[in-house]
Specification:
Distance between the termini: 49 Å
Order of helices and strands: HHEEHHHHHHHH
Strand order of the largest sheet: 1-2
Length: 206
């Protein structure tokens, strides 16, 4: 397809596509003559990924570049690449208290999760626990364990749903569901809270 068709399929303006090409975020198309190029399904997927990260994920182009670098990494095994892609989505300036870090490490050990010791998601979770503490809400260990059980069930289903035999698509889908799946889980959690509240407090408003 020509660049105009690529623009129509992805709803990304031609000028923006050309900018991504110049910046190296989007690989060049197949040259056809001096000034034209053809693009394929891989370009459609890459543009949709960039758009999702920028528009829905709120990432800067510098952060998008870091994520894409991990998506395109082929020298490491798939598990390492997926972990690095996760890390690229997490803010680099997080801090967390020693106590919250200890709680996270204890939770990971208790569940027997195989998590890198330097995984930025450990700090991400500890920082989130600290944020609750700062506003006066203590997330006790029992509720944290319930969260972990629910997250484990979701994660197992997500990984099982990843495509087989297409490394690039697997990593892209992982990045998309990690960056954009949060609002889906948040909305479902709120709906479930409303249901639980109705049962506990006897609401008849549906």
């Amino acid at each position: 397809m020509w660049i105009a068709e690529l623009s129509r399929q992805t709803d990304v303006p031609v000028a923006t596509i050309k900018y991504y090409l110049r910046e190296g975020l989007l690989p060049a198309g197949e040259a056809v003559g001096a000034t034209r190029a053809r693009y394929g399904e891989a370009h459609v997927r890459r543009l949709k990924l960039i758009r999702a990260l920028v528009e829905a994920g709120g990432l800067s182009l510098a952060r998008v570049r870091s994520v894409l670098a991990e998506v395109d990494e082929e020298s490491r095994d798939l598990h390492e690449v997926l972990g690095a892609a996760h890390g690229a989505l997490i803010p680099a300036d997080l801090t967390a208290s020693d106590e919250s870090r200890r709680r996270v490490d204890a939770l990971v050990a208790e569940r027997g999760w195989r998590i890198y010791s330097e995984s930025p998601d450990r700090v991400f979770l500890a920082d989130a626990i600290d944020a609750l503490e700062k506003v006066g809400y203590h997330l006790d260990d029992e509720l944290l364990k319930i969260y972990a059980s629910a997250a484990n069930e979701v994660a197992e289903a997500e990984v099982a749903n990843l495509p087989d035999g297409d490394r690039q698509r697997t990593v892209e889908d992982t990045v998309l569901v990690t960056a954009l799946g949060g609002p889906v889980l948040l909305a479902l959690r709120r709906l479930a809270q409303q249901n639980a509240s109705a049962h506990r407090y006897g609401s008849t408003q549906y």
